[in-house]
Inverse folding.
């Protein structure tokens, strides 16, 4: 697969400056990165889809090449969704297929819920809808994950905590990835722990009534190799949005660990949009 030409730029949207990349031509496809990571996680699948789509990727506010806005001390899924809408408007994109996973799965879902005029279809992979699950179950699952993060952070700081969490979510481990990419992601540790986990992810809880009002095509996916917490969240959304739950090969990070297989799994949900 040949590397596609990439147009890089920055856009001032919703009080933030966002770094973005655009590849290819055809119907718009917006790929939204999740917590810790940036649009580099999509480089391979963006090249794959650029033959059929105008692929738009970006670093979310405060991450990597998108500077942290002055005075910005909290965020929400709603704010992040507005960023995406404003970016599409700035790029003169009418509507787009939107794809998100983990925390960005919530952003893609919110786009379908509240900004349907901008969304042709939404694909949500392992959405971090932990606030919808039974608190005892979430606490039990976190009790298994948190010691890994806390131990790493105590030994070597937030960057080590991010590495420990991403390793727990991966199939092949971070050592097989482009290390310059990994280093950029680790640099997002403070922002993610400070703002995204308490103020964005755990605060977002769509109602079943709202989900029933979604009019755009919505596909819910989960990974074959996954934590019980992520499986339960994907199952909750599939059930309460009355959608069939699809399963992709690999892990929570399959988009970067198995890009060819992940792109092949996505493609049926993008066809005809």
């Amino acid at each position: 697969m040949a590397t596609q030409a990439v147009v890089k730029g920055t856009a001032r949207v919703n009080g933030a400056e966002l770094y973005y990349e655009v590849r290819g031509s055809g119907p718009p496809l917006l790929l939204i990165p999740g917590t810790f990571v940036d649009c580099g996680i999509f480089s391979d699948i963006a090249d794959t889809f650029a033959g059929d789509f105008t692929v738009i990727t970006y670093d979310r506010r405060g991450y990597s090449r998108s500077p942290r806005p002055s005075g910005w001390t909290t965020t929400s899924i709603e704010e992040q969704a507005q960023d995406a809408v404003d970016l599409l408007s700035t790029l003169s994109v009418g509507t787009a297929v939107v794809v998100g996973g983990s925390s960005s799965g919530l952003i893609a879902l919110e786009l379908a819920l509240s900004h349907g005029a901008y969304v042709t279809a939404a694909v949500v992979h392992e959405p971090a809808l932990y606030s919808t699950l039974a608190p005892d179950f979430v606490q039990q699952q976190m009790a298994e994950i948190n010691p890994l993060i806390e131990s790493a952070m105590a030994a070597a700081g937030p960057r080590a905590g991010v590495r420990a969490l991403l390793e727990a979510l991966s199939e092949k481990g971070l050592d097989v990835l482009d290390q310059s990419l990994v280093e950029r992601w680790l640099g997002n540790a403070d922002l993610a722990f400070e703002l995204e986990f308490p103020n964005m992810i755990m605060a977002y809880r769509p109602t079943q009534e709202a989900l029933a009002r979604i009019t755009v095509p919505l596909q819910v996916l989960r990974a074959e190799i996954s934590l019980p917490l992520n499986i339960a969240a994907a199952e909750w959304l599939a059930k309460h949005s009355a959608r069939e739950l699809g399963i992709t090969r690999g892990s929570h990070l399959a988009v970067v660990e198995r890009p060819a297989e992940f792109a092949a799994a996505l493609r049926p949900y993008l066809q005809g949009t």
About this structure: The chain has eleven helices and eight strands. The chain has one domain: 6-133+196-270. The mean pLDDT is 94.
